[in-house]
Amino acid sequence: MKEKIIKKEDVEYLGRLARIELTEEEKKKFEKELGKILEYISKLNEVNTENIEPTYHVLPLKNVFRDDIPESSTSKEEILKNAPDKDDDFFKVPRII
Question: How many domains does the chain have?
Fold first, then answer.
């Protein structure tokens, strides 16, 4: 029988880090699921990547920038015209504290 990669204690620790309470059923479920994920990742370590160049994106994309052309901004009057309540050039909102 294979040794478990993830143990119940590991799942409990992750639950505490995430600040979530897990039932015993959830702990068993996540123990299996996380174990399968780690097994799959360990298979990736077996792939020979010695002559493979590192990639940062699977498609040959480059950053697409637009010209930085200044435009006129919206006027204060236009911005404040739909405000439910305003005080001079400011939005007036209810006090929170």
Answer: 1
Across-strand partners of 91?
A: 86
User: What is residue 15's predicted lDDT score, i.e. its pLDDT?
Assistant: 95
pTM, rounded to two decimals: 0.49
Predicted confidence at residue 45, as pLDDT, reads: 85
Domain that holds residue 20: 8-44
CATH number where 26 lies = 1.10.20
The residue type of 22 is: L
Can you tell me the mean pLDDT for 22-43?
94
Q: For the chain, give the DSSP string.
A: -PPPSS-HHHHHHHHHHHT----HHHHHHHHHHHHHHHHHHHHHTTS--TTPPP-S-SS------------PPPPHHHHHTT-SSEETTEE------
